[in-house]
Amino acid sequence: MRNLCLASTFGCLLLVISVSAQTAGNGDGVELGAFILQPEVSVLGAYDDRVQEITEDDYDDDFYYETGVGLGIRNRPARYDFSANANYGYRTYSDYTDFSDDFYNAAVNLNSDDGKLNWGADASYRKQLSYDTSYNPSTGAGPDSILTDEENKRAQVRAFVSYDQQVSDRVSIVPEYSLWYYNQETASSTSRDEWMVHRVALPIQYAVTDKTAISAGFRGSVQNNDDEQGVIGTLYAGAAGQVTDKTAWSLYLGVSAADYEESGSDVGGVSRGRLTWQATEKVNVYAFGGNEYEPGYNGGNARMVYRAGYGASWNIVEQWVLSATGLHNLERAVGEDNGQYAGTRSFFTGSATYRLPRWAEISFVGRYVNDEIKVDNIIASIELVARY
Question: What's the pTM value of the predicted model, to 2 decimals?
Answer without folding.
Answer: 0.88
